[in-house]
Design brief:
Elements lengths: L1 H9 L4 H28 L3 H23 L5 H25 L12 H9 L21 H5 L9 E3 L10 E7 L8 E7 L25 E3 L2 E11 L2 H24 L11 H7 L1 E11 L2 E12 L1 H47 L4 H22 L7
Antiparallel strand pairs: 1-2, 2-3, 4-5, 5-7, 6-7
């Protein structure tokens, strides 16, 4: 624009066409901004957006035809202004509108989650069993035969014998869930001495959310992330961000649908500060020694859902900008080709007009087919 104004000041003869061109570009830019603002304000239906795209295309092609087309070939310009929007602009509008899935916010903000849960059961992370073929931790036949669920763990002690050399056997019933059978572990120890190995973790202080499946509780969606077994808590902490990110990605896919997989990703610092509600460290005895498990409770509330939807809108805008740039390049190519054909027709006196018409039609078809395959997501509308 600055270069055009300088040229207009230096060359008075070129002042009028340069000012007309700059004014046309300014009107088109302002009209595009107003059109975008109008669409974002009204959030109209698909048919209205397509109509507005068609009207904008007709206006654009009409202005270009009136400015650059020679008066002797003005019918070509009029035909271009009529056919161009139908062939180029209207399909582009359909690409922008129909290739992106609309995020609905009804059903309390969990439409996709409700539908997924009606079809299939949620996947519950599987942990390694604590009793891994250890010679000291073998289940007794009495324990395996008793399948009666219990509410709380019970500790049964056998009475001590008269002799001080005899040992006391302590039986601990570990009950992880109401559906699982009791598992009794016998730990021999002397009355006057403590066990040499670290004590096994029981379910007395085990939070109920550790074994709970992913579910919606009130206005939040809860899921548990399990890390381990590792030797130390530090090793668990190193793996925790990756597990949390994977769980968040899975929630985003459930919330918005599988078609947005990998296109929306919550920041790691946000997940650590706003979704982690509780942590619980657990030590289990294995044949190789004590190992550490880390359990983390994640909660996704409406604030997180709003952030997910906002990032999805931003992703849509970025994709549409890329699509618009590709479409603009195609439109400019069509205009330049049409302008060159018209100049060639004027120079040759219309001797090759039929051949030029066939070439123009083939060029338009090639651009439309190329845009169909090159514009991201357009082939699925």
């Amino acid at each position: 624009a600055v270069l055009g104004l300088l040229l207009a000041l230096v060359n008075p003869n070129a002042r009028k066409p340069i000012l007309i061109t700059l004014g046309t570009l300014l009107v088109i830019s302002v009209g595009a901004v107003l059109l975008i603002g109008f669409l974002r304000f009204l959030e109209p239906n698909n048919w209205l957006i397509l109509l507005l795209f068609a009207l904008a295309g007709i206006a654009l092609f009409g202005l270009v035809a009136l400015i650059v087309v020679n008066p002797k070939t003005r019918p070509w310009g009029i035909g271009l202004a009529i056919v161009g929007p139908m062939v180029v602009v209207l399909p582009l509008g359909a690409f922008f509108v129909m290739s992106v899935r609309t995020v609905r916010s009804d059903f309390g903000g969990y439409p996709s989650l409700e539908r997924v849960h009606e079809i299939s059961q949620p996947v519950v992370p599987v942990e390694l069993d604590a009793d891994i073929h250890s010679p000291d931790n073998e289940a007794t036949p009495a324990a395996t035969a008793d399948n009666t669920p219990a509410e709380e763990p019970t500790i049964e002690e056998t009475p001590a014998a008269a002799s001080s050399d005899e040992t006391t056997t302590k039986t601990v019933n570990l009950v992880e869930t109401a559906e699982e059978p009791k598992r009794k572990t016998t730990v021999p120890a002397k009355p006057s001495e403590k066990p040499a190995s670290p004590p096994e973790t029981t379910t007395e202080d085990r939070p109920p959310w550790v074994d709970a499946p992913p579910r919606k509780v009130g206005d939040v969606y809860r899921m548990t992330v399990n890390v381990g077994p590792y030797e130390t808590r530090l090793d668990c902490d190193r793996q925790l961000p990756e597990r949390i990110q994977a769980a968040a990605d899975d929630y985003v896919d459930r919330y918005l649908g599988p078609e947005v997989k990998g296109r929306v990703r919550l920041p790691a610092d946000y997940l650590e500060k706003n979704t982690v509600r509780e942590t619980w460290e657990e030590t289990r005895e294995y044949s190789v020694g004590p190992m550490t498990h880390l359990h983390v409770l994640l909660e996704f509330d409406r604030k997180t859902n709003d952030l997910i939807k906002q990032q999805w809108r931003d992703a849509q805008v970025r994709e549409r900008i890329v699509q618009a740039g590709t479409a603009l390049g195609g439109v400019l190519t069509v205009l330049l080709a049409a302008f060159g054909l018209l100049k060639f027709d004027l120079a040759t006196g219309g001797a090759y007009r039929k051949h030029m018409a066939i070439g123009a039609i083939l060029l338009l078809l090639a651009l439309v087919i190329g845009g169909w395959w090159l514009i991201p997501g357009s082939a699925g509308f």
